[in-house]
Structure formats: structure tokens, C-alpha cells
Amino acid sequence: MKDKLDQGQLLQLLDKIMHPKANGLTEETYNYVLLAFCAGCPDPIKARWLVVECLDPMSDEELVERALAMPMRLMADVSELELPAGHPLRGMAL
Prior knowledge:
Elements: H1 7-18, H2 27-39, H3 44-52, H4 60-69, H5 88-92
């Protein structure tokens, strides 16, 4: 999945991430959906931070808008300290 996703596609994935039980996600599927969401954003690393670590209260729409507003960041520009060489996100994102 090297293509960036549009707002609607990201919102669909984010709904699955935010409601894994309601969407019947296994842990493995949840992890894949999270990676797919991040890979579909301009900056996959910061998108992951928004979903997993950011404490700012925001709606799904606001989170996606913030993710889409980030400048494009290629995986080739991300150091191995920030994202290990073998991390699956490197193969899914640009």
C-alpha cells in the first residue's frame, strides 16, 4: 500500500482502530489496520503518534484532518533510530 489515502478512506480505517471489538478485529488485524492507516498518511510516523500516543482530545475527523495536513515524509528519510529497518511500516509506506 504505497498510495496515500483520502479523508473518507482514512476515516473508515480510523473507525476500525477506535472500535476494534465492534468491528470484530483480532489483534493481528488491528495491527494491520493501524499500519494501513499510518501508511496512507503523508507522514506515517507522526500519524501513528496521533493515533497511539497523542493525548489531545479530538474527533476522528479532526485527527484525520491533522494527519492529512502534515507534510509528506518518505520512509527513506526516516532514521533507523526513529523506525527500525525491519519495521513493516517501511514496506507499506513510501
